[in-house]
């Protein structure tokens, strides 16, 4: 069984941009409980199943699928709107941070994620991250499909 341990933060400055390499993502959800996600990252398709959170961790299983299948699933079976974003991989403090710059219905939202081997793994935060939102369900990608950032209001 795979396990994902992830922390999520709001991004407060552009300090992460120097040297960052981005990949375009499109993703959608076939179901929300459990979360069954279809994703296209660059030119590769994936099917991911995520179980309920247990602290900062949760079960996660991810499998490559043909790009054509991913496209068809996104267009015909996934809940709308789809998540559209560019993910940048940013090395810092011995870890790889992932900065997601959202587009479409979630334009204006920029979050940084840090996947760790366990909840006890020490890490330091770069100065371009702000408030931690790991425990705020609004920032989960599955939630952003159901309640896009553009609808949050002031």
Automatic annotation (TrEMBL):
The active site is at 29 (proton acceptor). It comes from the Bacteria. One of its GO terms (molecular function) is inorganic triphosphate phosphatase activity. Pfam families: CYTH (PF01928). Residues 2-146 form the CYTH domain. Its EC number is 3.6.1.25. It is an enzyme of class 3 (hydrolase). Keywords: Hydrolase. This is Inorganic triphosphatase. It comes from Meiothermus granaticius NBRC 107808.
């Amino acid at each position: 069984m795979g396990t994902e341990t992830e922390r999520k933060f709001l991004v407060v400055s552009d300090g992460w941009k120097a040297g960052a390499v981005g990949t375009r993502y499109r993703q959608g959800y076939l179901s929300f409980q459990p979360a069954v996600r279809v994703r296209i990252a660059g030119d590769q398709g994936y099917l991911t199943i995520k179980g309920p959170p247990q602290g900062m961790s949760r079960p996660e299983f991810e499998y490559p699928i043909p790009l054509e299948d991913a496209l068809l699933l996104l267009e015909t079976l996934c809940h709308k709107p789809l998540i559209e974003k560019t993910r940048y991989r940013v090395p810092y403090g011995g870890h790889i941070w992932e900065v997601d710059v959202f587009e479409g219905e979630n334009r204006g939202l920029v979050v940084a994620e840090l996947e760790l081997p366990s909840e006890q793994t020490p890490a330091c935060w770069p100065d371009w991250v702000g408030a931690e939102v790991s425990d705020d369900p609004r920032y989960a990608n599955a939630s952003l499909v159901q309640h896009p950032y553009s609808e949050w209001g002031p």
